[in-house]
Design goal:
This protein has helices at about 1-15, 30-35, 40-55, 70-80, 85-90, 155-160; strands spanning about 90-95, 100, 140, 145. It has about 170 residues and is mainly alpha-helical. The strands form 2 sheets. Strands 1-2 form a two-stranded antiparallel sheet. A two-stranded antiparallel sheet has the order 3-4. The radius of gyration is 22 Å and the shape is extended.
Length: about 170
């Protein structure tokens, strides 16, 4: 029994570290979505995301540490960057910093849709380990670097792009 367990252990270990022999490498899913937009639109999207990263919308557990002006600056950035979106929607500010936009559809008989995003980021503990400073929004050929480009600000701006406001 011990010999069988050892053999299974060796096989599992070797399988975990063997290189892939796949001939076909599927394209990244995000690359397919991004390829659907014209280059000029993606350039604008990239610029907006880069600018958004520079606004330090850091949320702390202790909310007294939040930079209230940065959060207001982000609200203003959205207003000035997406004026058509703000013209077509109704904005409510909840608890001073949360934004709720309502966008009535053309057919009230259809069910509503909920789309969500957020623009706050967690504090940076290890800034010296970043490839680029976390709040500079550096744009390289491959990506925008900074806080919020992988999980929150990126989704918010991509949602605006998908809705036709980017």
């Amino acid at each position: 029994m011990a010999l069988l367990a050892l053999l299974v252990g060796v096989l599992v270990f070797r399988a975990a570290f063997l290189p892939s022999k796949q001939l076909y490498k599927p394209p990244r899913k995000d690359a397919l979505v991004v390829a659907a937009f014209p280059p000029e639109q993606l350039k604008t999207y990239t610029a907006h995301l880069s600018q958004a990263v520079r606004i330090k919308t850091i949320s702390y557990d202790d909310t007294t540490m939040n930079d209230r002006q940065a959060l207001r600056d982000f609200h203003k950035f959205l207003e000035t960057t997406y004026p058509l979106f703000h013209k077509e929607t109704t904005r409510e500010i909840i608890n001073e910093f949360s934004l709720l936009y309502s966008w009535p559809g053309k057919d009230a008989a259809l069910k509503p849709v909920l789309m969500m995003g957020h623009f706050d980021v967690v504090p940076v503990d290890n800034e010296d380990q970043w490839t680029f400073p976390p709040f500079e929004g550096v744009v390289t050929k491959e990506r925008v670097w900074g806080r919020g480009t992988m999980d929150d600000k990126v989704r918010l701006f991509f949602l605006l792009l998908l809705l036709g406001f980017g």
